[in-house]
Amino acid sequence: MTRMNVTMDLSRLSRRSVLKGWLATGSVLLANTILAPKSHADRLDLSITPACGEDTGPTRSATEGPFYSENPPEKRDFRSDVDGPPVTLIGYVLSADCQPVPGAIVDLWHANHKGQYDNQGFKLRGYQKTDAQGRYYFETIRPAEYAGRTPHYHVKITLPAGRTLTTQLYFPDEPRNELDHLYDSALLMNVKTVSDGEIGRFDFVLG
Ligand SMILES: [Fe+2]
């Protein structure tokens, strides 16, 4: 795949400008580059395209946990649900042979900035379908830790053919990661700070 390796000062960019650039894939603007998936995070190269096939295989599953609510709404803006540190979560859904999967359902739910879930309604709960290039994004917040759990996102990915992967995503800088028995370093997002919050990148590979 075409890959552009660029080192740039993300702290000067906003979440919106990074997202806009990423969604404009196809142009050669610098803003079109974005956080690499985790497999490239240490090298800080910023890649337009996913790095499937260079990682360790399909995305690992993780427990659903006790706080999933059936039939969430279609929603990508979780920011209007609650206060909290803003995070734009982006990535691809890829098949085992590294092809982007359009129309996959990415169902996200997580705790708020106080470590609480909305178990009555659908705050911080919703799904998106990947676009024609297999991309998804959410505008949300950074969740807090709660009862033995380091901060995490819960995600279910459902392919158009029907298969579902249930997993969780983690932040690389959380001191409680190693204390959480469910924590899996293979599920770390690549998280970068920008001028108005953070961008988290994770590409799901369904085997
Ligand atoms: Fe949880």
Task: Estimate what percentage of residues fall within beta strands.
Answer: 25-35%
What is the arithmetic mean of pLDDT?
A: 85
Radius of gyration: 16 Å
Q: Which spans of ≥5 residues are poorly predicted at pLDDT below 50?
A: 1-7, 26-34, 38-46
State the distance separating the first and last CA atoms: 19 Å
List the ligand species: fe (ii) ion
- Please give the number of β-strands: 9
CATH topology (fold) name of the domain at 64-206 = Protocatechuate 3,4-Dioxygenase, subunit A
Main sheet characteristics: 5 strands, mixed
The helix/strand order is: HEEEEEEEEE
Measured as a percent range, the helix fraction is under 10%
- The SS-based structural class is mainly beta
Give the key terms.
mainly beta, Protocatechuate 3,4-Dioxygenase, subunit A, binds fe (ii) ion, single chain, 207 residues
Characterization of the model:
The protein is mainly β. It has a domain at 64-206: Aromatic compound dioxygenase (Protocatechuate 3,4-Dioxygenase, subunit A, Sandwich). Helices cover 4% and strands 26% of the residues. It has 1 helix and 9 strands; from the N terminus they run H-E-E-E-E-E-E-E-E-E. The strands form 2 sheets. Strands 1, 4, 7, 8 and 9 form a 5-stranded mixed sheet that branches. The protein has a 4-stranded antiparallel sheet with strand order 3-2-5-6, with no helix packed on it. The protein is globular. 37% of the residues are buried. The model is unreliable at 1-7, 26-34 and 38-46 (pLDDT under 50). The structure holds fe (ii) ion (FE2). Fe (ii) ion binds next to strand 5.
